[in-house]
């Protein structure tokens, strides 16, 4: 019975996580559409300090969509392992990229399309091989988990490293090294996910009629979550303000997700009962998502399609098929004529060498 309920909760968490990505990804499009409508009307832009977007219903629709996504994401942690929910957050980037190509006329180049495909494949692999976390159904059990020596050491190390980065490394290298601020918000994010898991359990108990508001752990988790999320937002905004978004986003995703996976493995012992093929599958799926997100962001400003593959590749294909460039083909493109003549000469030379002719020398 408990195993059946566990699978039921798993699928509820999976649906909530995917719904969260759809809502959050769509929210960016709605907000952008609202801001573009205001720009066409001549209103002062938000980047210039204007607040006309508060009167635009599309912007509010985007805000509500993001709120619904965050609520769904919060609820997903109460049902499914963090190892599954956190990586699936990458799908919101995928949804936003696809919808923007349809509704905002933003071109999705070849790298972006491959990145989207890889993100979907990686997410599918992770869902198939996702670990089943050790069941924690009450705040008392969660309290016992949080008091585990392994997690206490892990949390202490995170706090110490974060304080060093904030007060020592940050003032010196935060403006020049992209990893400083991103590392701060990423490792603290691991603790915020643990707080969300605990609060999710508290809400489930509250709905069941249990007096969770009298439990001190509920308020400790809530206070810790506020501190962690505030710190995350602060340093992520600093990183985005200083460095290129296309670089910040994939690096943040990798470090944040890795921190959450590590924290979740220590706290909930998710990996203890996994088979070797599931462990390999989970890491393979995660790495595939990383590559997909990198391709989607790092090359988003590169205008590259199948139509403009390197000319040399097309020439090589023709040579491989036994068809050499004709003199007419070369002189038909003035800017490429010298390169073509050079290629014809080198091709003839190579053919002569293969045939044993001394004329090539």
From TrEMBL:
Keywords: Membrane, Transmembrane, Transmembrane helix. It is a multi-pass membrane protein. The chain crosses the membrane at residues 12-30, 57-79, 85-104, 111-130, 150-171, 178-203, 215-235, 247-267, 279-299. Its main location: membrane. GO terms for cellular component: membrane. It is found in: Membrane. Belongs to the NIPA family. This is Magnesium transporter NIPA2. It comes from Antrostomus carolinensis (Chuck-will's-widow). The lineage of its organism: Eukaryota, Metazoa, Chordata, Craniata, Vertebrata.
